[in-house]
Amino acid sequence: MNGGRALASVPVGPAHRGPQGRARTHAPGRRSCACARPPLRRQAAAPAHARPPSPVAMAAVASRGPSQEMDVDITQKEEIPVHGEFITCCGVVTQVLKCGPWTELSSNENNGNPQLLILIITGNPGIAGFYIPFLKALYAGLHKRYPVWVISHAGHIMAPGGTKVTGTLNDSGAKEVDDVFGLNGQVEHKLAFLRNHVPKDRKLILIGHSIGCYVILEMMKRAPHLQIVRSLLLFPTIERMAESPNGKIAVPLLCWLRYALYMPAYIVLKLLPESLRPRLARLLLRGLNINVNNEITVPASLTFLQMPCLANAAYLGSQEMRDVVKRDSVTIKENIKKLTFYYGAKDPWCPVEYFEDIKKDFPEGDIRLCEKGFPHAFILHHSQEMADMVSEWLQDDLFRL
């Protein structure tokens, strides 16, 4: 990455079947539906006989001796390092977590691998740390052949004190984005990251989750020159968010009562000693039925328990309720061969009727309905299973590279 590293490579534990290590990446300020700016600081594959082996499979075979049995799980049992760094993008501190090459990508031109980057765009809150298990599992599932990165949303994470933040030379998006914490700003934030940190000719696979799917569709519309091989949209919130079951609850909280909720949150976080914040994080996670013994979720939650981060996530949510209304069928039609949609069967953010409607409008599209019972927030409980499926879905695209 341009500008060097901010943190050292951090092993965070095996990708599967074992205690996960602690990701030593913590994190740095949103507006109302009335557009008032808060005074916050910036900181499915074919059978094996139906086609030749995929490049992933060939790479795995090449890495073993001729007498060895191929064990697809072996990479998942190894220690997989995750490199974390903080950079400035559009003038805002941003966290990027990486499996695979984490220096400037252009320095890896002669490694013999197809020149490809897999980039994950998060949901809201945009905390990259929550995606570490999925990041590692996907990297391992592709036999460590392709770099897999995840980027936080602008303003959803703060760099801890003493952490090196790498400035971006010629940050082309720094002066262009007026509202970097809003929905439009988050799109421009991701485009600026690609402009400044990824070679222009680099092929891309984009993976979006929740509102990250909306961001990806906007990126494809605004930057058609991007070398996108495929975009995977997981549990996509790309239309009628305010009309969804969860949206009907979120609208009054995020659009009408948001400022009223800031004060108690501010008081609690202001008065709560740092030593007690892990207990608060565990209490909140238990309330959400999330495993508090997971050594990823608690540290990731702590990075978010900062008033600017909470306010920015709430602000982005208010804009989602207001602006994510009509599906962008034009962009979908223009890119239908590059898109894969994966809807939840019981997703209160995008009900099954949304799946049925888009399936009816685009019968030729790769539009799937979950049959495994995964929840909208799959990253909290089903990262390995989802990574296994995504790895399989990508085989044909990787074979054609």
Automatic annotation (TrEMBL):
Its EC top class is hydrolase
Q: Name one Pfam family in it.
A: LIDHydrolase
Biased-composition ranges, Low complexity, are: 34-49
Q: Which SUPFAM superfamilies match?
A: alpha/beta-Hydrolases
Q: Which UniProt keywords apply?
A: Endoplasmic reticulum, Hydrolase, Lipid droplet
Primary localisation category: endoplasmic reticulum
Q: Does the keyword rRNA-binding apply?
A: no
Q: Which reaction does it catalyse?
A: a cholesterol ester + H2O = cholesterol + a fatty acid + H(+)
Q: Does the keyword Hydrolase apply?
A: yes
What is the superkingdom listed in this entry's lineage?
A: Eukaryota
The terms under GO molecular function for this entry are: sterol ester esterase activity
Among the GO biological process terms of this entry, one is: intracellular triglyceride homeostasis
The entry's cellular-component GO terms read:
endoplasmic reticulum; lipid droplet
Q: Where is this region: Disordered?
A: 1-68
* Enzyme Commission numbers on file: 3.1.1.13
Q: Where in the cell is it found?
A: Endoplasmic reticulum; Lipid droplet
PANTHER family given in the database record? LIPASE (PTHR13390), LIPID DROPLET-ASSOCIATED HYDROLASE (PTHR13390:SF0)
Protein family according to the UniProt entry: Belongs to the AB hydrolase superfamily. LDAH family.
- Its recorded name reads Lipid droplet-associated hydrolase
Q: Which organism does this record belong to?
A: Ornithorhynchus anatinus
- What lineage, starting at the top, does this entry show? Eukaryota, Metazoa, Chordata, Craniata, Vertebrata
